[in-house]
Each structure stands twice: as structure tokens, then as C-alpha cells.
Amino acid sequence: MTDDRAPSAPAADGFPPAPGSHDPEALRRRALDALLSARARTATLTDSVEDGELTAQHSPLMSPLVWDLAHIGNQEEQWLLRAVGGRQALRPEIDGLYDAFEHPRSSRPSLPLLAPAEARTYASDVRGRALDILEAAPLHEGGRPLERAGFAFGMIAQHEQQHDETMLITHQLRSGPAALTAPAPPDPTDAGSLPGEVLVPAGPFTMGTSAEPWALDNERPAHRREVAAFHLDTSPVTCGAYQRFMADGGYTDPRWWAPEGWDMVREHGLTAPLFWHRDAGQWLRRRFGVTEPVPEDEPVLHISWYEADAYARWAGRRLPTESEWEKAARHDPATGRSLRYPWGDTDPTPEHANLGQRHLRPARAGAYPAGRAPSGAGQLIGDVWEWTSSDFLPYPGFVAFPYREYSDVFFGPGHKVLRGGSFAVDQVACRGTFRNWDLPVRRQIFSGFRTARDA
Question: Can you give the CATH number for the domain in which 41 is found?
Fold first, then answer.
């Protein structure tokens, strides 16, 4: 962790520290709220189906839900009980079963996993002890790195919410009737008057963070980036726009595809985004157990990087770089500062962004006017993860913390960066500096994109 500032020092990246980041009691309340919120969501995702569905593997791409449930508890035990609290291990014999690097997802159903009731009891026992540790932990700036500003507690809350998103993906992949419900997101109020793209002027900005107390290692440290002027879509690419690409032979013309992407199209016979199918002249999609017409003005979802890249080429545009995306989302030209979020430094509210599984779909393009950035671009946080053209690489001065396997082992050209979060992401695991990454073939994730062009 690179943030060793004294409480009175200014933030190195130009934005104020997160609310309460220098107040141990405020941090303790924030950590408690984050942990409880994550566990409530975990319960929703696992209590909504029968035990047989918890132990089943609904896709070889995903773990059984019961594996995720016990893995959440095991990571919390290892980091909060053992590393922070110095407690004796509760279940050391299961560490290997729930090691994500030791067992690929496709093999996890064959492991001697904890049964649903036992997994719930284990996770609950760990949580009770973790909250005792939180109550007594010194969270001041001068403390141990894992405890400083409540980092370990924030890391575990983010980890659980990330697995909640993974479990929501499993819910989307499972067959059968809907197990989850949620209201529709709000409609846009001024979508018809929005420009198709915004201009982001040339110049430097501060990328990444050295101030956000719960930022993960790959978001650090803050550093200056020079970015040439560019135009960026005001909203993510919609289903209707993507259908025009499809109708123009997008999946049958190799001109638009990277060679590996074209190989993927031919090998799997791709003709549309994942979960779409054609019936009686109409495109339909399956969404959490419900089949419905594809909404034309909603951001397109379940798109691989190769599909996003092909669409951008077809449209005479390109995917934005990661630096371009972050500058459009965070840079305030009036002050020269980089904001925590597109709308400013305050935490998200339901008026700012579609986050936290409040809705089980993206909002229509142009929604959330209160969440727009100074650049004029909207829906940069929430709704859909947005593919960028960039490989997942470390920032200058990167230091792995607290373990290499979170980021360091994934750096390189094999993974592409996604930014901004989706409707499935909780606010604790989503901010203007947050970096996600995945293989360019991934389609089951809640991914979309927007395009850019040089100015």
C-alpha cells in the first residue's frame, strides 16, 4: 500500500480523501456497513434457490454457488481472523478447497465442498469473529498496513461483492424460472437532446489514486498522463445500434474482426450477443429466467472485447484507451482536479448511477443525468462494464499489496481492461479509479462498451 501520508497531508492525486478516511470511528462504521451490505446480498443470491441449485454447476465457466459462499467465508477467515486478528485458524483443512488458483472453476463440483448448511454456518461463524476484530482494530493512519484506514475490512467487503457479482452471473446462466426480481431502472429525462458524442480536450490529467483508502493495488499510485483530444460516445452503445451492425453483416465480414475474434466467431457460430435469439422476425433475449424483446435503447450487454472492437471498426471508430476513459470520467477542467466519481467526490446515490443490483438490467441510454461527468459523458459508472482497448498493465510505481495474486499475475497482453462497473456492482467495488480486467473472449460478464475517435 502506497498511501503513507500523515492525516494532515494533502491528497497526492488532487481530490479530497474519501469521507471519514482519517476518522477511525467513521471508518469503522463504513467498514461495518460495507460488510453487512455484502452479506445481505450474498444471502439474497444463495437463499433464493434450493440446495440442489446451490451445489449444481450451471455452466463450466462458473463455480457452484455453494463454492462461492464458502470461499467468501474462507477469505474472510484468512485475512480478517488470521492476518489482522491473529486468531487461530477455524478450518485450515479447507483452505486448499477454496483456493481459486489451485482449482479451476470447471473442476470445483468434484471437490469435497462444504454442504450448503455447513457453508452458511461457517461463513456466519467467521463473520461474528470478524466483527469482534473490527470493533477493536486500530484503524489510524500510523497503524499496520492491513489495518490502516480499515483497508483489510474494505478489501474483504469488496471481495465479497465481487463474488456476489459472479454469483449473479451464475443466476443469469442457470436455466429454469426466475429466482430474482427487481424493479426497472429509471427512464432518462433528456435523452433526445443529448449529443451523440462529447469532445474531451487534449492535456494532462491525474490517473489512478494515492488517496482513496480502500483502493486496490492496481489503482495505485496516482500519476500524470498526457492525453490527446478525442471524441467519446455520450452513452454506451445501445442494442438498437448494435443490431444495425448485425444487420449489415457484422458477424459475417472478417474485415471488422481481429484474427482471434474472427476465429471465435467461426468456431462458435456467433451471430448475436450472448443470450439473444431470433424468433418470428424479432430479436429476443433471456434475462434471469425471463424471455423478452431486446430493448433497442438499452446499452447492449454480454459483449466480448472482440465483438466490441469489431463494432467500433464497422462504425469507423475505435474503443477508447483506459487513459481516455478515465480522463472523460474524472477530469474536471474547471479545477484541474481528478474527481472520485464523474459527478464529484461524494459517494454514489440511486440518482447518480445504476449500481448494487437494485435493478437487474442496465438503464436506458441517457439515464442518470445527475451522474454525468464534466466532459458531458454519462453512465460511466454502473449499467455495463465498458471494454477499453488497453491491455491490463501496472501503473508506474506499482507495488503488489497485500498479495501478488490479486493483480500482478494477470498483467500482460492476455487481459483487456474494463472500466466503470455495471448494475451488478456494489459501490464499494466501483469508483472512478477502479480497474477490472478479463479475457477478450468473455461474454457471460455484464459487459458493454462505448466508442471513441480522434479529434
Answer: 1.20.120.450
